[in-house]
């Protein structure tokens, strides 16, 4: 039986869901598959995990036509290939992704891996803010509708992997142009947006969930409230999952009717899925 492993980073759950579904499809094709949040593993563990696998898969959300900083760091530290292992890269997006998966995949080619598949999947948006009025996230059957639309594409990706078929989306000129433009701005945008986090102390119940779930340990408790440091990657996990909507990104985000928060890809979603070992 062939083996694959999926490494993913998921801010608010979409990439976790897609990784889970891809695992199911590969299992149906008689592949043995493990999947791991990159927040829950150490580099030393990876050497053992990938030793005998035939195929490695990387998944993440699109942030300005690149991967989130935690995934970029993970790939930077990922071991070099010691034989001709094949890989896939997939990315989840709200709307446009450019050449994201292929752009990130090229970094793994430089480590000796054979990039066989790159693919993008449109999922529910999680970003709708006073300073960035993208379409509002929905926490209803429209999430399920997007899932149903993605399932045939997930099945295709699983089939491409099992048949060792090379399919590289985003490799061509238009995707590269869109991607290069978005990447030229994303770091500055994230740095600026990260400064806008505050806590509404009248709502806050000091549950410390934001500290627990932050992937970069950017949030610290201070005098019965919380401070945000300079390591924010703008994954929106704390903002989306605050049980009392006390975390704000701009004063107007208090209005949860006008600025709803994405609660995850399925009923009963638990943010701890993203951080548990």
TrEMBL record:
Q: Which cofactor does it need?
A: [4Fe-4S] cluster
UniProt keywords, alphabetically: 4Fe-4S, Iron, Iron-sulfur, Metal-binding
Q: What's a single GO MF annotation on this record?
A: 4 iron, 4 sulfur cluster binding
The 4Fe-4S ferredoxin-type domain is annotated at 195-224, 225-252
Which Pfam family, an example, fits this chain? Fer4_9
In its keyword annotation, does this UniProt entry include Chloroplast? no
PANTHER family listed in its UniProt record? PHOTOSYSTEM I IRON-SULFUR CENTER, PHOTOSYSTEM I IRON-SULFUR CENTER-RELATED
Protein function: Ferredoxins are iron-sulfur proteins that transfer electrons in a wide variety of metabolic reactions.
Which named protein is this? Ferredoxin
């Amino acid at each position: 039986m062939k083996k694959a492993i999926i490494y993913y980073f998921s801010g608010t759950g979409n990439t976790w869901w897609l990784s889970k579904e891809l695992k199911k499809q590969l299992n149906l094709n008689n592949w043995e598959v493990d999947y791991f949040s990159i927040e829950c593993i150490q580099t030393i563990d990876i050497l053992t995990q990938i030793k005998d696998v035939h195929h490695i898969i990387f998944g993440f959300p699109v942030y300005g036509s690149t991967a989130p900083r935690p995934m970029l760091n993970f790939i930077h530290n990922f071991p070099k290939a010691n034989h001709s292992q094949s890989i896939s890269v997939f990315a989840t997006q709200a709307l446009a992704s450019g050449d994201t998966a292929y752009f990130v995949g090229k970094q793994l080619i430089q480590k000796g891996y054979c990039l066989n598949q790159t693919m993008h999947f449109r999922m529910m948006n999680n970003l709708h803010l006073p300073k960035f009025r993208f379409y509002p996230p929905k926490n209803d059957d429209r999430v399920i509708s997007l899932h149903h639309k993605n399932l045939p594409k997930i099945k295709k990706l699983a089939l491409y992997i099992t048949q060792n078929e090379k399919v590289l989306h985003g490799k061509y000129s238009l995707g590269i142009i869109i991607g290069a433009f978005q990447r030229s701005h994303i770091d500055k945008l994230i740095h600026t947006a990260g400064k806008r986090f505050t806590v509404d102390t009248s709502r806050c119940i000091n549950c410390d969930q934001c500290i627990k779930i932050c992937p970069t340990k950017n949030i610290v408790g201070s005098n019965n409230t919380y401070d945000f440091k300079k390591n924010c990657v703008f994954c929106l996990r704390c903002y989306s999952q605050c049980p009392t909507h006390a975390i704000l990104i701009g004063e107007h985000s208090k209005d949860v009717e006008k600025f709803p928060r994405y609660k995850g890809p399925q009923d009963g979603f638990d943010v701890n899925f993203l951080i548990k070992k």
